[in-house]
Amino acid sequence: MNLALVSAPDNSATGSTNIAPANTAPTRPVLPHIDLASLPRHGLPTALLVRLNVLPLEFTDHQLNVAIPENASGALIQQLSIACGCDIEAITVPEELLAPWITSYAALVSGDAPVTDESASIDTVLRDLAASCCYRHGSDIHMEPAPDGYHVRLRIDGILQPLAQLPVGQGQRCVMRLKLLAGLDVGEQRLPQDGALNITLDDGERASFRLATLPTVDGEKVTLRLINSPSRQLSITELGMSPEQLQLLTQALHSSRGLILVCGPTGSGKTVTLYSALMHIDRHHRHVVSAEHPVEHRLPGVQQVQVEPRIGLDFATVLRAFLRQDPDVMMIGEIRDAESAEITLKAAQTGHLVLATVHATNAGACWSRMRQLGIAEEDLHECVKLIISQRLVPALCRHCRRPADARTKMKIAQQLQPPIAALAPATATGCQHCHDGIQGRLGIFECASPPFTATYSDMGPLYQAGLVKAAQGLIDVQALSHVI
Ligand SMILES: [Zn+2]
C-alpha cells in the first residue's frame, strides 16, 4: 500500500478528494494516500464502521484494511472481523487525525442503502430459523454459544428442541446481524441488551421478534421471542374453554365497565387469553388500549404501549395517561403494585372495561392478592366481572394416542366431580407428528363469576377442569398433576 502523510479532508467535497502529502516529518503518524470517493463501502456495514470510528481503506475478498484510533480497544479487530466476515489489517492513527476522515466518510455513505455483512448468507440463515419458528408454532429461538459452535434450539409447546448447529464464526455473524437489525450497540458484548426486530420470510410475511442478549463465557447468547407470527390466529374459541366458561367470558367482554382478571403462574398462557379476549371486542366501535411489558404480539385496532420503567414509563404512568385518552377498554399487562391496582379499580368503576393479569395461583388467591394491594372487599364485589385462572397442559398427539389402561380410567372416575358417564382417557408414546406423544398445549381454566364466595380457595376447580380434559383423552392425567 502506498503510504503518505495525511492532512484533513475537505469536508465540503463529496466527490474525489485527493490528499497530497502535507509534510514529510518522520514522527507524524501516517495514513495511506486517500481518495475519499474510492474508499470501500459496498458490502460493508458502513454505519457500524462510522460508529466505531473505523475508516475502511481497501477491501478485497478476504481482507479489509482499516485505520483505527490509537486508543481503540483490543477487541475492536475481532468485532470488525466478525461484522465484515473477513480478516482485518489495521493501522492506528491518532483520533484527532482520523476524526475528520470519519466525518467525511459518514457524509459519503449516509445516502447508501444499509449494507450488511455477508448479508446474503447470514440473512438466509436467519430467515430459515425464523420460518422454522413460525411454521412449527415455536415460541422462542435460543442461540447458544459453545466451544464447538452455536447451538440453535426452538421452544415448541414449552419444550426446547434442537434446530441447528452453526459454526462459531457464522453464529457470531448471525448474532451481530440480529443486534444490528434490533438497533442494539453492536460493539457492546459485555452487557445484556434487548430490542425488537422484524424478519421477512420467503413468502413475504413478516415475523416480529423480541431479542435479548446475554454475555456468557463462550460468547453472546441470544434469545428471540416470537411476538407476531403470521400463522398464529387468536380466538377465544380456541383457548380450550368449556362452552359454559366461554359464555361467561363473552358476557363479561360485552360489559361496558368492570374488571376481568386473569391469573396463573408465568408461562400459563395468560397473555394469549388477554389478547384473544381483546380480539373478540368490537374494536371499530370501542377504543381499546393496552399497557404491556413487553408488547408480545401486535394487535390490529389496539393502541399498544410498551411500559419502560427505566425511563420512568411505569404501569401507573401509562394508566393515568390512558384515562386522558377516552378509552372504552383497557388491558393491563400485570397489576403488580398498590398504585396500579388502585388506578385499575378506579378505571373499572368509572365506565371502562379493564382486563388485567395478576400473579396468583387461582381465583381465590387472585382475590386475596387484590385485597393485599389495598383494594376494599366491597369495591372488588362491585367491579370484578370474572376471574380466570389457567394452566397450559401438554396435549396428547391425536395421531398416536390410544386408550389408556383401566387403572387410569379408574383413577379419573374416582376423582371427577360431578362424574361423567363416558370416560375415554388416552395415552400416547410418540410418532412422526409429535414429540414423545405430545403435540401442542391445551389450556385448562377456572372461571369464577359473581357472586364471589369463599369456595374459590383451592385448586379444585382447575384440577376438575383438567380431569374433564383427561377423561376426554385430550391430556394425560399425570401431566395434569405436574402443572397444578
Ligand atoms: Zn404422535
3D architecture notes:
- The N and C termini lie far apart (70 Å).
- The N terminus is likely disordered.
- The chain is built from 14 helices and 20 strands.
- The protein is globular and about 90 Å long.
- The strands form 5 sheets. Strands 14-13-15-16-12-17-20 form a 7-stranded mixed β-sheet, sandwiched between helices.
- The protein has 3 domains: 107 residues, GMP Synthetase, Chain A, domain 3, CATH 3.30.300; 110 residues, Beta-Lactamase; 248 residues, P-loop containing nucleotide triphosphate hydrolases (Rossmann fold), CATH 3.40.50.
- The chain has 484 residues and is of the alpha/beta class.
- The site of zinc ion (ZN) has 9 residues, from loops.
Secondary-structure-based class equals alpha/beta
Q: Which regions contain 5 or more consecutive residues with pLDDT less than 50?
A: 1-8, 10-29, 113-120
Q: What is the CATH class of the largest domain?
A: Alpha Beta
Task: Say how many strands there are.
Answer: 20
Overall form: globular
CATH-defined superfamily of the largest domain: P-loop containing nucleotide triphosphate hydrolases
Strand-residue fraction? 25-35%
Q: What does the largest sheet look like?
A: 7 strands, mixed
Helix count equals: 14
Q: Give the neighbour order of strands across the main sheet.
A: 14-13-15-16-12-17-20
Bound molecules: zinc ion
* N-to-C span: 70 Å
CATH architectural category of the largest domain: 3-Layer(aba) Sandwich
Number of domains: 3
Rg:
29 Å
Averaging pLDDT over every residue, what do you get?
A: 84
In the CATH scheme, what's the topology name of the largest domain?
Rossmann fold
Approximate helicity band:
25-40%
